[in-house]
Amino acid sequence: MKSKPTYYPINSIGFIKSLIIHMRPYLLFVSGVVGLTGMAMAPVKEVNLLYFLLAFTPLFFGYGFGQALTDCFQTDTDSISAPYRPLSQKIVSPFNLGLVSALGLILIALILTIMNPYNIIWTALSIVGLSTYTYFKRQFWFAGPPYNSLIVMLVPIMGYYALTKGGLALLSDSNLWLICGLSFFSYANFVLIGYLKDISADRKTGYKTFPVVFGWIPTIWIGNINLLFATTFCFILVGWNDPISFSIFLIATIIGITGQVKGHFTQEKIESNSSFSITCTVRSLLLWHLAVILHLRPEWLVFGIVFYALFELTLLLRPQKNQI
Hints:
Elements: H1 13-23, H2 28-40, H3 49-71, H4 75-81, H5 86-89, H6 94-115, H7 119-139, H8 144-162, H9 174-194, H10 199-204, H11 210-214, H12 216-238, H13 243-265, H14 275-296, H15 301-316
Helix pairs in contact: 1-3, 2-3, 2-8, 2-14, 3-6, 3-7, 3-8, 6-7, 7-8, 8-9, 9-12, 9-14, 12-13, 12-14, 13-14
C-alpha cells in the first residue's frame, strides 16, 4: 500500500521555495519585457515612477504565477521530463500550488484593473487561457504554441492600458498590434522549440505536441517561420535610423538565427541537445522587445541594461541547466 505524500504546509518556507521554483524566476523577464513594451508606447511624455512600478510589477510576476498554475495540470509529463520540480517530487500539493497561483493572478488582475477598468477583459481572458492551455496542448498538435502565445499577446495590451486612459478605442493603435505580433511570434517560437526538450515525456503521456506528431526537423522549420515574422514585426517598429535600437535588433536576430541553425544541424536529435536553441529563442525575444522599448523610451536605457543583466544572471543560476 502506497503511503500518502507528505506535502509542505502552505505557510511554510518549503512551500514558498517550491512556489518560486515553479514560477521560473529566470522567465519572469518574459512577461516583464512584453508588458514593458506595451507600457513604453503609452501616449504619456513622462511615466510617473509610482505608476511605472504599479504596472510593471504585476506584469513581471504574471508569468511566474501563470507557469505555476499550468504546472498543476501537467504533472504527468513533468514527472518524467522535470523530476526536480516540487510537484514531481510530491512535496507540494497541486491544489495548494494551484490555489496560491490563482490568487496571485487575481491580485495581478485587480491591480491592473484599478489602473484601467478595461484591463479586466484582458486579465480575465489570460486567466481562462492559462487554466485551459494544457488541454489544448495535450489534444491538438497545432494548438499549443499559438494558444499560449495568444495569452502572452494580451500582456502588452495590459501594459498599454495600465498607463493609458481610455476604452476599446485604444485598440485602433496600429503600433500596439505590431507589438502584439512581435510578442505572439517570438513567444510561439519559444514554446514550440521548448517542446523539443519534452518529446519523450510527452509521447509517453499522450500529449500530441507538434514535435511528437511531426518530429524534430519540421518543428525547426516552423520555428524558422516564427522567427521570420518576429523579425519583420520588430524591424517595422524599430527601423534603422535609431543606432542603439537597431543594434539590439540585429543582435537579437543573429541570436535567433543561430539557434535555428543549431537546431537544423544538430547531429543527434535528442532532448538534451535542444537547450541551446531554446535559450536562443528566449534571448532573442527579450532583446527584440528591448529594442522596441528603447526606441520608444530611450530614457529607459539604464533600466534596460540592468533588466537584461539580471535575466542572464537568473538564467545562469537556474536549478537545471537542461530546463528552460
